[in-house]
Each structure stands twice: as structure tokens, then as C-alpha cells.
Write a structure and sequence with these properties.
globular; about 475 residues; mainly alpha
Length: about 475
């Protein structure tokens, strides 16, 4: 990636793209606190309420690879702007929804916009900045990935309490409109040949999205039907078959979403795996803890949002400490440390008493999880792009964002299923779910020891120059 190794670029581009990405990440968790109000106003069935979250993250995750490849083929600016406009209009439609079906459809449309916006934004960053600026920009991006999700819970509580649940979506409209105007003037137009739509791997995108949706739908129904039911097994087999078909399609596609060579880029694949696991743990923890605070401890929406404020603050501290630790200890050490901290925090929640109190039981655990997840997400953003060429920046960005969104969907589905499957009800299941989370985090830490490269930012900069 030569071209601007010695030229400092203004930070205005990063600020614009960070604001847009903040909206995308915010919308994963901003609705968590508003879910009880949404369920009451729109008459949601309790088992369907999680699809307000899941529809968004699944569609986003399923189409992000297509969005990343589209950014490489058609130009990052037009794809970013199209995604931003789509996301903004769908946010307005979400706030105006008058039925469960309308809201879930609008949330899916938000996911389509996010799938274009997010990888285009990250690839603009990785091709605009170089050297120390690039490391700083990716560190900021990683902090947004974790901090935006935490702040989303706080914003959701404030907006739901002071205005109404519709405003968790309406707030995106003015921010999106202003960002689109600024991006039109600030982000440079694409140069060179613009590819045709025939070069997009639509079959691969639809197959991988359908496979992911089917698997999550299968997990979602486990509480009612059981793991060994015909429904669960059939849907699991169908989802697995669709994902296998995706891999087969990729082998023969003219422009595959994920070229086979991508799976040999160790830094990217290992980082995406850690991103998937860490995001799943984080968003699943938000989902369960939000419900626990409101349904068990009787906290209001605003009180629940404020309860996550320390988490958001500790993410900011993790961004600073983690970025410094990267240069000294390397990505592998920081990721493993982060996952072990996350496991410890989840274990604290698993061991908490049935009527846990916020200050002695929940807050210390949230701080450990926040610090740990912050270390992981910040580290993998830098490590993932180490061996990626300029031409494949959109693809790599899409893969990382796919891991982020799919992880969020699976985290909610799996941990919520464990919690609601307990014979003693949600309170007992809360501990079971976090015991599972602690085990998953510890297992990921062991995997990271053997797969995540020990790259330092200085090494990352040298590799990126080629």
C-alpha cells in the first residue's frame, strides 16, 4: 500500500466515517432497553421480540461481504453514500412502524444499508491513512465497535424514558442526513473502471444470508422445541447445507465474495474469528443483563441505560491501554488477556446470587467484561488488516464486519436460549447463560494462543506498505 506513507491525511475523513459507523453499531444495542415498550405498543409475541435485534444484525452480517466487494468494484464513495441513505430512510421507517411485521422489515432494511455503509467506510480508512495514522484510525474504529454498543444501551434508556421508543430510530435521521451531505463533499470520487453488476456474486450473498438466518432461527426455537426436535435438526441441516452451497458457489464464481486465497491470510481469518466470538459475548451480555435489570430488579429504562455507563467508560480506557499494549506486547498477548478478563467477568455473573444487586455483583462483572472486550476488538482491528492489499481492503473490511454482526446475532440467540431453557426460569437461567459465556471466552483465549499472530503496530505498518 504505497502512496501516502509519508503524507499525513486530515482527520476530518475519520471523524465523518466514525460518526456513520457509530450509528450502525449503536443500532445493535440501542433497542435492547426499549424492547419491553416496543413489545407492549406493537403487541409482539414474547418469543418474537428478539427478532427486532436479530433481523438487523443477521441481514447486515449476511450482506456485508457483498457490500465490501461492491465497494472494491464500484468505488467506496458511491457504495458508502448509498448505504448511508438506505440506512437513514430505513431508520425513519422503523420509527413509523405500526406492527411487528413492519418493524422487523424496516430493521432488515436498516441492515441492508449498514452492509454497504460499514465495509465501505472501513476500506476508505485503510486506504486513506498509512503508518502511525493508520494504526490510530483503526484503534478508534475498534473502540467504536465496542463503545458504540455500550453507549447504545444508555441512549436507548434515555430516549425511551424522555421521549418514546420510536426515537431510538428517529435520532438516526438528522445524523444520517448531515453525514451524507458532508460525505458528498469530503470523500473523493472513485477513479478508474467501474465494474458492472454482473461481476457481483449475488448468488453467494443470498446463499450465505439464507444459511445464517436459518441457523439462528433454528437456535431461536430450541426453547420451545428442544435441541433434538425434528424442527431444530431439520433447520440446522438446511442452514448448514446452504452455507456449504455458499462455499461451492465461491469456487466457481467469476468474482467470489471470498476468494479462496483469503482463507490463507492468517492474520485476517484469526482476527475475524476472535471478532465473532467477542462480539457475541458482548451483545449477548447486553441483552441478558438489560432484561435482568428490568424484569428481575425492577429498574426503569433510564436506570438500565445508566447502569451500562461504566461499561462505556471502561471501553474508552481499554482503547487507550490496549493501543499502548499492542506496541509493547503484540496482538496475540492483548487478545488473550482480553478474553481471559471477559471470562472472569462472565464467571462473576454466573456465580451471582439469584437476587443480585447492581453495585456488589453486576457492576464489577461489567467492568471486567468491558475491559476485556475492549482489548480484543481494538487489537483485532489492527491485526486483521496487516497482510491485506489495497485492492482487497473492502473485502477484508466486509469479512471483519460480517464477523461482528453475525457474532452479535449468534450471541443473543445462543445465550438467550441457554437462559430460557433452564428449568428454574430466567433467574436461574441467567447464571447458566453466563457460565456458558465464561467457558466460551476461555476457549477462545486458548484458540487465540495458537492462531492470532503476535504482530505489533510497527510490524503492521511495514506489512501494509507492500
Amino acid at each position: 500500500m504505497s502512496g501516502h506513507t509519508d503524507t499525513r491525511q486530515p482527520w476530518t475523513t475519520l471523524v465523518l466515517l466514525a460518526v456513520a459507523q457509530f450509528m450502525v453499531v449503536l443500532d445493535i444495542t440501542v433497542v435492547n432497553v426499549a424492547l419491553p415498550s416496543i413489545g407492549t405498543d406493537l403487541d409482539f409475541a414474547p418469543s418474537d421480540l428478539q427478532w427486532v435485534v436479530t433481523a438487523y444484525v443477521l441481514v447486515t452480517g449476511g450482506l456485508l461481504l457483498l457490500g465490501g466487494r461492491a465497494a472494491d468494484l464500484f468505488g467506496r464513495r458511491p457504495v458508502f453514500l448509498t448505504g448511508l441513505v438506505t440506512f437513514t430512510v430505513a431508520s425513519l421507517a422503523s420509527g413509523l412502524a405500526g406492527s411487528p411485521e413492519m418493524l422487523i422489515a424496516a430493521r432488515a432494511a436498516q441492515g441492508v444499508g449498514a452492509a454497504m455503509l460499514s465495509p465501505a467506510a472501513l476500506s476508505i480508512i485503510t486506504t486513506t491513512y498509512a503508518g502511525a495514522q493508520r494504526t490510530t484510525a483503526l484503534t478508534v474504529w475498534g473502540a467504536i465497535g465496542a463503545g458504540g454498543a455500550a453507549v447504545g444501551v444508555l441512549f436507548g434508556g434515555m430516549l425511551t424514558t424522555w421521549l418514546s421508543w420510536e426515537w431510538v430510530f428517529f435520532i438516526n435521521v438528522p445524523v444520517g442526513a448531515i453525514s451524507a451531505i458532508v460525505a458528498w463533499r469530503l470523500v473523493p470520487r472513485p477513479t478508474g473502471r467501474i465494474a458492472g453488476f454482473a461481476e457481483l456474486d449475488l448468488a453467494g450473498a443470498l446463499t450465505v444470508t439464507a444459511g445464517l438466518v436459518t441457523i439462528v432461527y433454528a437456535v431461536d426455537g430450541v426453547t420451545t422445541h428442544g435441541w433434538d426436535s425434528a424442527r431444530t435438526l431439520a433447520l440446522g441441516a438446511l442452514g448448514t447445507g446452504l452455507l456449504a452451497s455458499f462455499l461451492w458457489i465461491e469456487r466457481s464464481a467469476k468474482r467470489p465474495l471470498v476468494p479462496s486465497a483469503t482463507w490463507r491470510v492468517r492474520s485476517l481469518v484469526s482476527s475475524a474469528t476472535m471478532m465473532l466470538g467477542a462480539t457475541g459475548l458482548m451483545v449477548g451480555a447486553f441483552f441478558l443483563t438489560s432484561l435482568y435489570l428490568q424484569q428481575v430488579l425492577g429498574a426503569s429504562a433510564l436506570e438500565t441505560g445508566l447502569a451500562f455507563l461504566p461499561f462505556a467508560l471502561i471501553i474508552g480506557e481499554a482503547a487507550h491501554v490496549g493501543s499502548q499494549a499492542l506496541g509493547r506486547f503484540g496482538g496475540r498477548s492483548v487478545v488473550v488477556t482480553g478474553l481471559l478478563l471477559t471470562s472472569a467477568g462472565a464467571l462473576l455473573l454466573a456465580l451471582a446470587p439469584d437476587q443480585a444487586e447492581y453495585l456488589p455483583h453486576i457492576l464489577p462483572a461489567l467492568l471486567l467484561i468491558g475491559l476485556g472486550i475492549g482489548f480484543v476488538l481494538i487489537s483485532v482491528q489492527v491485526t486483521a488488516m496487516a497482510d491485506v492489499t489495497h485492492e482487497d481492503a473492502g473485502l477484508a473490511s466486509g469479512l471483519m464486519q460480517t464477523a461482528h454482526e453475525v457474532g452479535a446475532a449468534l450471541g443473543v440467540a445462543v445465550l438467550a436460549t441457554v437462559a430460557t431453557s433452564a428449568g428454574g426460569g430466567f433467574v436461574e437461567g441467567f447464571g447458566d447463560a453466563f457460565a456458558a459465556a465464561a467457558a466460551i471466552a476461555a476457549g477462545l483465549a486458548g484458540l487465540a494462543l495458537f492462531t492470532v499472530p503476535a504482530l505489533r503496530p510497527a510490524a503492521e505498518v511495514r506489512l501494509a506498505a507492500h
